[in-house]
């Protein structure tokens, strides 16, 4: 009986030892990765910003041919290869990198003028156009303007350029380094000018819309009007009667 109990205890101890070994064999492979992960520090995976916020556009359109209204009236037609609207820049602007063709209409939807440029920017808050490259403007009256730069201030209704410009009217051609004009190109100023004039029916020219031609000649008015020469008439007294 005692031998049986001792033998049973030996078998029990051997079984418990075997079970402990099996647990170690199967439990440790699962515990090691967890222990290794817990020992490592947490790493935050972040990517750098692709673009600055200041350069993010609200809209980019390609192959644009659209009408733009002003105060509820269709006023302009824009034709461009790429049109970007960016309100995050200061000041906010429309960008036409690959050229711009713009037509301006009157209230009856007739073309009043058109302009063309290699690159253009429109500052919508200031209502200011900045045209660069080969800039060309033409009105319905035949006025033509070309330059490498032109600003169009829609608030003050002015066109101006600080680069070499050329203006062709029906009666004259003018060139200069500074240009300032109204939107219709009828009142203009050009500094450092040179040009040619065409003789018209009225002498210098015949353009009724050109205010320079229709302005009075103040210098001529101050000149003394010459008189036609006349022969001097002399009279001789009649002899007295001797009575």
The fraction of residues in strands falls at 35-45%
Structural class designation? alpha+beta
Counting DSSP E segments of at least 2 residues, the number of strands comes to 14
The rough form would be described as elongated
Helical amount: 10-25%
Biggest β-sheet: count, sense, barrel?
6 strands, antiparallel, barrel
SSE run: HEEEEEEEEEEEEEEHH
Poorly predicted runs are 22-28, 202-207, 211-215
Strand order of the largest sheet: 2-3-6-7-5-4
Rounded mean pLDDT is 76
Distance between the termini: 215 Å
- Which oligomeric state applies? single chain
Number of helices: 3
Structure description:
With 243 residues, the protein is α+β, with helices and mostly antiparallel strands. Helices cover 19% and strands 40% of the residues. The protein has three helices and 14 strands. It has helices at residues 2-39, 211-214, 218-221, and strands at 59-70, 73-86, 93-96, 100-105, 111-117, 119-123, 128-139, 144-153, 158-161, 165-168, 172-176, 178-182, 188-191, 194-197. It has a six-stranded antiparallel barrel. The relative contact order is 0.06. The model is unreliable at 22-28, 202-207 and 211-215 (pLDDT under 50).
